[in-house]
Every structure is written in C-alpha cells, then in structure tokens.
Design a protein that fits this description.
Length: 87
C-alpha cells in the first residue's frame, strides 16, 4: 500500500511542476489547452483499447473534467485509482 501512496505523491509533484513550468513559460493558456486536448485523447485511447487491455474508465462529467483539467497526469491518476480500487 505504501507504493500506491508514493506513486500518487509522485504524480502530484509532476502535476505541480508542470503547472509551474507552464506559468513560467508565459504561454499558460496555450499549454493548458494542449494538456487538455492530450488528456481527452488519452482518455479516449484508454477506453478504445479496453477490449485488449481489460482496463476502462467510466465516461461521466467528472472523469471527462479530470481528463480535461488534469491532462495526461489526470488520466494516469484515474487509471491508478481504478487499478487500486476495482469496482
């Protein structure tokens, strides 16, 4: 269980570092838009490959919001939580 907390902490640190990097770059909104598009694409690819991998994410407003706001790290976080607590 400790490995799960370490993984989630590393993902959180990566998200904060990405936010700092985008703010310092001066192109925050363009960077955030790119992150949102790639997050939604990653979300779609996870669900598209669910037949082969056996892992899918439910499509809801919350999960789409996490994928859009969090980008690829948000999708990875949802996958990690899904694998830790399967329903």
């Amino acid at each position: 269980m400790d490995n799960a907390y370490i993984t989630l902490a590393l993902l959180g640190v990566a998200a904060v570092l990405m936010l700092i990097f985008l703010l310092r770059l001066g192109r925050f909104w363009l960077g955030w838009l790119f992150s949102a598009i790639t997050g939604l694409l990653a979300f779609g690819l996870v669900n598209l490959t669910a037949a082969w991998t056996g892992v899918s994410l439910p499509v809801s407003l919350l999960s789409l919001g996490v994928a859009g706001v969090g980008g690829v790290p948000g999708v990875v976080l949802m996958l990690a939580l899904r694998l830790l607590w399967p329903v």
